[in-house]
Specification:
Length: 55
């Protein structure tokens, strides 16, 4: 499991939950693509993406 956020406090919570914490800004497409690629590399692929962010 991985969590993507841009705030340090949210990333800390992701890490505390035992997930891979990745920084990305949903308003920057390259940032999101990079985070997805990093998650795929770390876990051998991505099966599901849930967007719960607002820009």
């Amino acid at each position: 499991m991985a969590g993507v956020a841009r705030s340090e406090s949210t990333l800390a919570g992701v890490t505390e939950a035992g997930a891979l914490a990745l920084r990305a800004d949903v308003t920057d497409q390259a940032s999101v693509r990079s985070a997805l690629a990093e998650a795929a590399e770390a876990h051998g692929g991505v099966d599901l993406v849930v967007n719960a962010a607002s820009a």
